Amino acid sequence: MITNKTIEDTILSRRTIRKFLPDDIPLHVVVSILEDAKWAPNHKIREPWEIILFKGEGRDTLVERVGDSLSRIGLKNESSNDIILKKRKKFQQFVTDIPIHLLIYMKPGPTQKAWHEDFAATCAFMQNVQLLAWSMGLGTVWKTNEFIFDPQFKVDLGLNKDDVILGMLHLGKPAVIPEPKERTSVKHKLTIYNTHE
Predict the structure, then answer these.
(1) Which of 7, 4, 105, 101 is nearest to 55 (CA)?
(2) Is the dihedral of CA 72, 74, 75, 76 positive or negative?
(3) Per-position b or e across 151-185, b if 16+ CB within 10 A of its CB
(4) At CA 11, angle to CA 8 and CA 14, rounded to 5?
């Protein structure tokens, strides 16, 4: 059984990892993490999260689709071809250096309330993935690059234009674990209404 101290230690020790070892992560390990992450709180058990996993040669598809998106976005923003090419190469190296890439998305809810609940639940799912991975000695970085908002990028991956990509979780063994950065005390974020004090 997980103790409160274990949960606290995992939350406090987790770091965003930006440098990964190239070591392969077996698919069954990732699926196990995702299976446990599904216990995130979600309204009416809608389980709104959907996942696309890129591993091995499947990473080539991600590189190609993102490259196409960067070209489209660059053209729209009038970026030079040299800048677009550099971005494509940088992303290709980034994907090659990390063994697992998870694109997390959800279908849009029928109402604003459902959309809000499902977005929050999918974020909770993603945090579960990060904490579970960390507890197994694996690191993650949660990225929300510009291509996740490109409707054609979604279509190219078999999604609908209206699907909501919350981001990508890149996962692998940490090569470097950064030192913690100071966090603002919650006392500066907390407003209390209490008639008894």
Answers:
(1) 101
(2) positive
(3) eebbeebebeeebbbbbbbbbbbbeeeeeeeeeee
(4) 140
- Tokens representing 84? 């677009």
Distance CA 66, CA 153 (A): 7
Cα–Cα distances (Å) from 120 to 40, 81, 115, in that order, read 10, 38, 9
Spatial strand order in the sheet of 164-172: 49-55, 100-106, 164-172, 139-143
Segment 69-80, tens digit of pLDDT? 998 887 666 667
Query: Can you name the residues that pair with 167 across neighbouring β-strands?
Result: 104
Residues in the chain: 197
| Bridge partners, residue 60, by sequence | none
Q: What is the pLDDT of residues 93-152, one digit of tens each?
A: 999 999 999 999 999 999 999 999 999 999 999 999 999 999 999 999 999 999 999 999
Phi/psi of residue 143, nearest 5 degrees: -120, 145
Which of 89, 20, 29, 21 shows the shortest CA–CA distance to 53?
29
Task: Say how far residue 31 (Cα) sits from the centre of its chain.
Answer: 15
**Cα 185 to the center of its chain, rounded Å:** 26
